[in-house]
Amino acid sequence: MTRHISLAGWLGKRAMVTLLVGLSASPIFAEEGVEILRERCAACHTETTTAEESAYFSRISDQRKTPEGWQMTINRMIHLRGIEIPKEEKRSLVQHLADTQGLAPDETEGFRYLLEQDNNRVEAGIDPDLEQMCARCHSAARVGLQRRTEQEWQYLVNFHMGQFPTTELHAMARDREWYRLAHDELAPKLAERYGLKSEAWEEWLSQEKPLLKGSWRVLGFIPGKGEYDGRMTATPDEDGNGFMLQMKGRYADGSPLEGEGHARVFTGYEWRGTLMLGDVEMRQVLAADAEGETLRGRMFLADSRRLGGEMNAYKDHGGAEILGIQPGYLRLGESGEVTLIGQHLSGEVSLGEGVRVEEVLERSDDRIRMRISAAPEVSPGARDVTVGEATGDSILAVYDRLARLEVEPTNALARVGGNGGQLDKMRVAFRAVGYAAGADGEVGTDDDLRLGYMPADWSIIPADEAAAHEQDAEYAGTIDAHGIFTPGDAGPNPERPKSANNVGRLKAVATVDDGADQLSGESRLLVAVQDYVQRVLD
Amino acid sequence: MKSSLLLSSLATIGGLMLAGIGASAAADTTSSKDPAARDYREYLLTVTRPNQLQVIDMASNSLLRSCDIPGPFGSGIMVPATDGKTAYVITNIWEDVVGIDIRNCEITFHAAQSSGNETVKSFQSVAVSQDGQELYTVQNPVRLMSDHYEVLEPRLAVFEIADGVGAQPVRTFPVDRRITKIAATGTGEVILGGGDLQAINPETGEIRLLEPLQNWDRGEQWMTPDAFAMHTQGSQANEYIMPYSTARFTDDEQDMATAEWWWGISRVDLETAESERMEIAPLTEVIMNFVTDPTDDNTLYGVFNSVSKIDISAKTIVKEQPLDHTYYTVNVSRDGNTVYAGGTSSDISVHDAETLEQIASIQLPGDMSTSDMRVAIIHDTAP
């Protein structure tokens, strides 16, 4: 078994080497990267010179990848090919390769969930060829986040044949000429779709990169803790390796959130942070927009990367902004407490038609906690919220009846673990999203009004009769009040037929009270055995 | 898995290993109901982790001997020689073949197929000619260059068994990719189980098609079969079985949900090298392997989570016996009276072929995982 080091594991609070913040391909740093390639890689990867007189290393120069992609490549060279490279040099090399042979922001579009480790999803819209040839083992995103020449894609096929020789014997391979199809047909297709050269990349390389230091207003969600808001300050570190981070804020229940850490930026926009929130180590995988106004992505637990939630950060330029409201819904004829989140908020609060402020409970420039109420007879719908000059478009949903409850993720995978085994349990965090029927009064149509995440009562039930017969709901795990599912212990269970592991096919059920009614939603949950191959990217 | 059982069985192995093979095989006919009175003895062979050949006396269902196999575990695939005295096992992660005398654990043959920067794997493919002179593997070579792999064409490699330790191929012939289990026929051919079922002449390299699978042409109504089997266990009926699963669509939309799902087999008579292909039973449950009753070619036994008995002409599973855990592979005694479920874990479950009731369990010192479970038959008295 190969245990990969997680990216954030070496992002490091003690980074020693130079970092290209804002990229701009400074010749000094680029030269350092080339020197490392020359020193550590050129014994096998022949160095020549391109027409533009820059250094070209066989194979390496024909690929572009994400920072995680390059990290996996170097890990493979260490574990499979026996190269030796000190940690600091490895860090510099990933930085150099991600900066000079990375992916433009547009090229990661649609696949960021893989970088964000938000893997509880069924990928949709994959080309059937790609699905059967590659995505039967990998995520399609793993492929979609690489750029290679045709020969490089073919070398990648050959690598599979050499390193994982039974690839062509798997189901969906043994019934076809897998190698010929992969090498002769799929590789050219991939080179066309995910080729080495692209306008997006050329453009990004030549572009001024965003400056990311400063104060950021942050909003997000952490499973088990809830929604939070706060400020994150990014101060360039002493060594010029990235940013020292300070995060301070509070969760929706009022409890404090406080942490410190470090972030590095790859390819000019790929933000990778690691910080301690209390005694919990967290990772941030965020992408900066081209202007450096926002950082969007996900923050998750370092030791359970599937447990995390969205995180959005907004640069503080001193202007007034409304960024969100927690919770973002209110039932007609009812009153409730909400927190309006923004920065530099001043002036009068307006909540739209039929909604008014009953009482301001707490107010600062960044947040306004208040009791609000909705009149019983106004029309339901999304309301714009304004504070002075600042507007939050359609951020408050006023609704008549909760019509539909969805559970996210809709398809989830947990894995048994612990019990003295090598791997921890792989948990899943569920959330319930409420919808009203919208103007047409019909549930499940395009105009359904999204109300937002709602607190819910959580339970698990067997997925079907067979799962009920196997008593999966009794053995496969438990779900807590926060919607966090913890799978059962690893290993054969003598209580179960055939001493089966504590695997199971379940549904996670959320139930929410809506006036006198109750509404439920459910998600499919598969509890599987351990996955001993721990990949940086699945 | 089952570490406590492993320890207790280890304690008994020392004693069992002192017992010899075939110590008192008397002359008799193969039809004798008294195993001791027959002119042959049957030995069940399998491989357990970390890498040992286990030799089991099928008359007493007891472990006789555990032979260390050089190198790391391959996949536990093997073929017994025609005289039953040697087992040829694929080891060293599919790269080497070793011949082990099952009577004394002596290594009599060793072909290391990889050399230099060329890695050669044989996935499940090892066979011995019926005259016991030649050994065959299908080699899948790749070459590791300074910064990339080259994928080379697969080939049938022919070894002289007499070359013993250090044997090198005496002939090679190009073959298709994706060939797994192979078997030698009485006509001097080697059956190649891959995308289709083929036979190759190991003298000339000439290949003929026996049964099309990936290239079958049964019209739009039938799904291309998924044909694959890890294990070769048809020697008791002198046959080679390649199982497959397929679906017969009930509409023009090729809707998997409404399709009829079938198990099927391509089966080769190893004496004549004649083949047939047929659906055998509805695919209502997973069956990992099939073996034919040597006394009745209309009856098949299968295993996975149960032992099942299949009537081919009726295309029905006629009897089923649930098992205490999953077993990957199956074999049967030559008299057709006893069915053995093995592989996966560290015990072999022994069943009465008529009732499918469990009649014994054989505990081994390690897990079989993907290993073969084959029968060696020795006719003369062993030393």
Keywords:
heterodimer; A: 538 residues; alpha+beta; Lipocalin; Immunoglobulin-like; 4 domains; eight-stranded antiparallel β-barrel; 30 strands; globular; B: 383 residues; mainly beta; Methylamine Dehydrogenase, Chain H; six-stranded antiparallel β-sheet; four-stranded antiparallel β-sheet; 4% helix; disordered N terminus
Task: Give an account of the 3D structure.
The complex is a heterodimer of chains A (538) and B (383). By secondary structure, chain A is an alpha+beta fold. Chain A has four domains: 25-204, no CATH class; 214-315, Lipocalin (Beta Barrel), CATH 2.40.128.120; 321-399, Immunoglobulin-like; 404-528, Immunoglobulins (Immunoglobulin-like). Helices cover 21% and strands 38% of the residues of chain A. Chain A contains 13 helices and 30 strands. In chain A, the strands form eight sheets. Chain A has an eight-stranded antiparallel β-barrel. In chain A, strand 17 and strand 18 form a beta hairpin. Chain B has 383 residues and is mainly beta. Chain B has a single domain (3-378), classed as Methylamine Dehydrogenase, Chain H. Chain B has one helix and 30 strands. Chain B has one helix spanning 3-16, and strands at residues 41-48, 52-57, 62-68, 78-80, 86-91, 96-101, 107-112, 118-121, 126-128, 134-144, 149-151, 155-160, 171-174, 182-184, 190-193, 197-200, 207-211, 226-227, 239-248, 260-269, 274-282, 287-293, 296-304, 306-311, 316-322, 329-332, 338-342, 347-352, 358-363, 373-378. In chain B, strands 8, 9, 10, 11, 12 and 13 form a six-stranded antiparallel sheet that branches. In chain B, strands 3-2-1-30 form a four-stranded antiparallel sheet, with no helix packed on it. In chain B, strands 4-5-6-7 form a four-stranded antiparallel sheet, with no helix packed on it. Chain B is globular, with a radius of gyration of 21 Å.
